[in-house]
């Protein structure tokens, strides 16, 4: 799992039938201090996240299980909304 920030929404009226009903969000992976790292990606939202929120994401087969769609062609799922991050240095 890792942290990401929701930076936008994705609307796709034509998509694989196994993705129908999912809310899709554009996310940017972030470090513990909130600084962006890596590429942006589209993720399925299972917790009602919104633009601007920091979220917990999972990838791969765990993402499919988190969304309860083991056969769906998805690779990233939002599984939590972060309230705070505390980093001890």
Overview of the structural elements:
- Strands 1-2-3-5-4 form a 5-stranded mixed beta barrel.
- It has a single domain (2-10, 21-81), classed as EutN/Ccml (OB fold (Dihydrolipoamide Acetyltransferase, E2P), Beta Barrel).
- 7% of the residues lie in helices and 44% in strands.
- The model has no long low-confidence stretch (mean pLDDT 92).
- It is built from 1 helix and 5 strands.
- Strand 2 (23-30) and strand 3 form a beta hairpin.
- The two termini are 21 Å apart.
- With 89 residues, it is mainly β.
Q: How is the secondary structure organized here?
A:
Elements: E1 2-10, E2 23-30, E3 36-45, E4 54-59, H1 61-66, E5 76-81
Classify the fold: give the CATH topology. Answer: OB fold (Dihydrolipoamide Acetyltransferase, E2P)
Total strands: 5
Please count the helical segments. Answer: 1
- H/E element order: EEEEHE
> Which CATH C-level class is it?
Mainly Beta
- Sheet with most strands: strand arrangement: 1-2-3-5-4
CATH architecture: Beta Barrel
Approximate shape: globular
pLDDT < 50 runs, ≥5 residues: none
- By CATH's scheme, which homologous superfamily applies? EutN/Ccml
Radius of gyration over C-alpha positions, nearest whole angstrom: 13 Å
Strand content of the residues, in percent? Answer: 35-45%
Q: How far from one another are the termini?
A: 21 Å
What's the number of domains? 1
Tell me about the largest β-sheet. Answer: 5 strands, mixed, barrel
Question: What structural class do you assign from the helix and strand content?
Answer: mainly beta
| Mean pLDDT reading | 92
The helicity comes to under 10%
């Amino acid at each position: 799992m890792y942290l990401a920030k929701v930076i936008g929404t994705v609307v796709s009226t034509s998509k694989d039938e196994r993705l129908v009903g999912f809310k899709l969000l554009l996310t940017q992976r972030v470090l513990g201090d909130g600084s962006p790292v890596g590429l942006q990606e589209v993720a399925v939202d299972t917790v009602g996240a919104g633009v601007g929120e920091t979220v917990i994401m999972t990838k791969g087969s765990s993402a499919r299980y988190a969304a309860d769609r083991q056969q769906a062609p998805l690779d990233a799922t939002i599984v939590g909304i972060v309230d705070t991050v505390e980093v001890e240095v």
